[in-house]
Write a structure and sequence with these properties.
This protein has about 475 residues and is of the alpha/beta class. The protein contains 14 helices and 15 strands. It has helices at about 15-25, 40-45, 50-60, 100-110, 135-150, 165-180, 195-205, 220-230, 270-285, 340-355, 360-370, 370-400, 425-435, 465-480, and strands at about 65-70, 75, 125, 190, 210-215, 230-240, 240-245, 255, 285-290, 315-320, 335, 405, 415-420, 440, 455-460. Strand 8, helix 9 and strand 9 (about 285-290) form a beta-alpha-beta unit. The N and C termini lie far apart (about 85 Å). The structure holds pyridoxal-5'-phosphate. Pyridoxal-5'-phosphate (PLP) binds near residues 195, 221, 291 and 333. Pyridoxal-5'-phosphate (PLP) binds near residues 219 and 323.
């Protein structure tokens, strides 16, 4: 008599009989070619109807676990899969031989990828966190609801890889007004964050061995995809005027720059350097990628127009994003491309992910064309200015001239150099501050080698003024207990 445990599965009775038989076969307790009891016998043993057993046998037959011979006997199939091992997922390093050269280069260059939720710190100066306390959520919700209730004819189907046409038109108009960027809507390609723009640029423009100029210190969001593409990085040092154009190599395929607010130092590139960079690009035959990630927030002086506005040779690829002005989870950014690069970038975007999600683009287009975006930018700019002021004031109050503040004129972060902390002692200060609930972040990850001084990068957009003051007070306590005055 075949002993079956029918309590191991849910659902109709025949499914439970089927599951019990399947596990018995897979565990090897019914060997290949072994005869199963007749449906009548098994039904009597299990005290179920014969029909129930017949349905279970039919399912096993359909899946190939049993075979029927001369329509009367049912036996276990001769070839069966090996018994399943219990699976528990733990990421493990793949053997390098199983990976492409691209993946091997990528894994070498990449630090830890965010995934697990981080413990929340009471005063976290992490760069990149958004501030959404004043974001007009109700207006956004209404725009989204209206789009979902009365979808445009093509809203739910496949769409253009270049992006939603009214959003591209709204952007061309906004960029001309706000950034002096001269372009037709057809030069714009919508991407999932600037990150996708950098990745597409690496694929479209770089072959293994090509030279790619990057700033030093640098933005890893760019160096990682460039190196994964096999490019040789030419790291050009930044001084008080940004990228040192006289140190550029004679030839390169691309140069990546952040002229509005060098990342991470916050230096702004003056006109003379911008013109020198464009003249070099023409001589070197290089494309220039201008990452204009945060120019909307400028606190002192007039905003400089984009590098793209000076480009007479169609060499500049302008990259803009909504990650700082709205929020990073939106994942909407855009490229303004020289006309010759539009077809290959559109092809690469199509090959990568077809196109960016239409609904978010539709809502964003309306948010811009109804004036909501610029209204919100003004409010967000005032709020960021107050937070920046609170941070600078608190740093001065607690640390005086023992700290040097840099890059504070634009953006949503600034850099603080600690004059009386040795670079190798910075980790102890960061650890002590963490114990007091303060998140501090070294500038070291943005340097190719250990920076000469101890520096911290402060994001301030997501903290209230009161929290900023309290956080810096605690940082000062941490500095005392970690052995600094
Ligand atoms: C230099 C720089 N570029 C671009 C971005 C924006 O990236 P994304 O648009 O992919 O969110 C950031 C954000 O942290 C940045 O620091």
């Amino acid at each position: 008599m075949l002993l079956l445990n029918l309590r191991g599965a849910d659902g109709p009775l025949y499914r439970r009989v089927y599951h019990a038989l399947k596990s018995t076969i897979r565990a090897g307790r019914l060997a290949p070619d072994a005869r199963l009891p007749s449906t009548r016998e098994l039904a009597a043993d299990l005290r179920v109807s014969r029909n129930t057993v017949m349905l279970a046998y039919e399912q096993l037959l359909a899946e190939g676990y049993v075979v029927t011979r001369d329509r009367a006997t049912t036996s276990v199939a001769s070839a069966l899969p090996a018994p399943a091992k219990p699976v528990s997922f733990r990421p493990q390093p793949a053997p390098p031989a199983a990976l492409s050269a691209y993946a091997r280069r990528l894994m070498r260059g990449l630090g830890p990828v965010p995934g697990r939720p981080r413990p929340r710190l009471r005063y976290d100066f992490r760069y990149g966190e958004p501030s959404i306390d004043e974001f007009p959520r109700e207006i956004w919700r209404r725009l989204l609801a209206a789009r979902t209730r009365r979808p445009a004819r093509d809203a739910f189907g496949y769409a253009s890889p270049a992006g939603y046409a009214p959003l591209r038109a709204a952007l061309a108009d906004y960029l001309k007004r706000a950034r002096g960027v001269v372009c037709e809507p057809d030069q714009i390609v919508i991407t999932n964050g600037s990150q996708q723009g950098f990745d597409l640029a690496a694929r479209v423009l770089l072959d293994p061995g090509d030279v790619a100029v990057v700033e030093e210190p640098h933005y890893p969001g760019v160096t990682i995809p460039f190196e994964a593409a096999g490019a040789r990085l030419a790291r050009v040092a930044v001084d008080g005027d940004g990228l040192q154009t006289r140190r550029l190599p004679p030839r390169a395929r691309v140069a990546y720059v952040t002229p509005c607010h060098q990342f991470p130092t916050g230096v702004i590139m003056p006109l003379e350097r911008r013109l020198a960079l464009l003249a070099w690009a023409a001589r070197a035959g290089a494309w220039v990628i201008e990452d204009d990630y945060v120019s909307e927030f400028r606190y002192e002086g007039h905003p400089l127009e984009a590098l793209q506005s000076l480009d007479r040779e169609s060499r500049v690829i302008y990259v803009g994003t909504f990650s700082k002005t709205l929020f990073p989870a939106l994942r909407v950014a855009y490229l303004v491309l020289p006309p010759a690069l539009v077809p290959p970038f559109i092809a690469a975007k199509w090959a990568t992910d077809r196109f960016s999600a239409t609904l978010a683009q539709e809502v964003l287009a309306e948010f811009i064309t109804t004036g909501q975006f610029e209204r919100y930018l003004r409010r967000a700019g005032n709020r960021n200015a107050a937070r920046r002021g609170a941070l600078i004031g608190a740093l001065r109050q607690h640390f005086g001239d023992r700290v040097e503040i840099a890059g504070e004129n634009t953006g949503v972060h600034l850099v603080v150099w600690l004059n009386d902390v040795r670079p190798r002692d910075l980790a102890a200060l960061i650890a002590r501050a963490r114990e007091l609930g303060v998140g501090l972040y070294s500038v070291a990850p943005f340097h190719a080698s250990q920076p000469p001084r101890a520096g911290l990068l402060f994001g301030y957009a997501s903290l209230t003024e009161a929290d900023i003051r309290a956080g810096i007070r605690r940082m000062a306590e941490a500095a005392v207990t970690a052995g600094y005055r």
